[in-house]
Design brief:
Blueprint lengths: L2 E5 L2 H18 L4 E4 L6 H12 L9 E4 L1 E3 L10 H8 L11 E2 L8 H14 L5 E4 L21 E4 L2 H7 L12 E4 L2 H5 L4 E5 L5 H9 L17 E6 L7
Parallel strand pairs: 1-10, 2-3, 2-6, 3-5, 6-9, 9-10
Antiparallel strand pairs: 4-8, 7-8
Helix pairs in contact: 1-2
Bound molecules: 2-amino-2-deoxy-6-O-phosphono-alpha-D-glucopyranose.
């Protein structure tokens, strides 16, 4: 069963997540990180940046693979996850260009791009620590309700509620793309260790469905109960339905 750590607030979640990431980097030469976007991990990237600037942490030799990217957004679009990751993290730390990866949102052939992404993860030796958020509907990455547990990196359609939840990340008048490339549930479950972050009352129902309901594709995050090394770091508000 996932290890559940309920902390006082978002700051405590950030500190613990940053500590776990630093520990994997210290323990694993050439550590491979699985990274997530969204609002929840923003403070974690800020903390990692600060620690790197203070000389407490180096990302030299670390490799990273992000969970997902919107389809049809060029990397330089301000709402792409490429832009997010460069702005929040990559451009501020000593992770080498070429050592960080996201799915190719501009791929002509998304199926082929998904296959190549799987190969690249495998060639890097697999993911040592995968950071995850959780959608209000229980999604992980962009694996929306119904995503098969044996899914791999592929093109997916976004749920209307996900498009609405992420619309504020887009410039005025622009709506998020309808599709994305995302690691699959099986891809995520292959990570050696998984850390899921959930903060705020909006995530309370999803966390309860993930942990208390049946293990079923209707709640993609419930698949994590099949993994032997999952830590959930949440605040009291996100834990309020448990
Ligand atoms: C987004 C991302 C997920 C993220 C989730 C929650 O759509 N694709 O990777 O974990 O939704 O986002 P937030 O942290 O902003 O609530």
């Amino acid at each position: 069963a996932p290890e559940l750590t309920i902390l006082d607030d978002g700051d405590a979640v950030t500190s613990e997540a940053a500590r776990m990431i630093a520990a994997v980097i210290a323990d694993t030469p050439g550590a491979v990180l699985g990274l997530a976007t969204g609002r929840t991990p923003l403070a974690v990237y800020a903390r990692l940046r600060e620690d790197a600037a203070a000389g407490k942490l180096s990302f030299e030799g670390v490799r990273s693979f992000n969970l997902d990217e919107y389809l049809g957004l060029p990397p330089e679009h301000p709402a792409s996850y490429h832009s997010y990751m460069r702005r929040e993290f990559f451009d501020h730390v000593d992770l080498r260009a070429g050592d960080w990866h996201l799915p190719d949102g501009m791929a002509d052939d998304p199926a082929a791009a998904g296959g190549r992404y799987e190969v690249a993860i495998r060639q890097a030796g697999g993911i040592d620590l995968q950071l995850l958020g959780i959608g209000e509907n229980g999604h992980i990455g962009f694996n929306e309700p119904g995503a098969p547990f044996d899914s791999r990196t592929r093109k997916v359609a976004l749920a209307a509620s996900t498009i609405a939840a992420n619309a504020s990340e887009f410039p005025d008048g622009q709506t998020p793309p309808s599709h994305a490339l995302t690691m699959g549930i099986a891809t995520i479950l292959e990570a050696r260790r998984i850390v899921l972050l959930a903060t705020g009352s909006k995530k309370a129902k999803a966390l309860d469905a993930m942990l208390s309901g049946t293990i079923d594709p209707a709640v993609p995050a419930s698949a994590l109960r099949l993994h032997p090394a999952v830590t959930i770091l949440c605040d009291k508000e996100a834990a309020s339905c448990l």
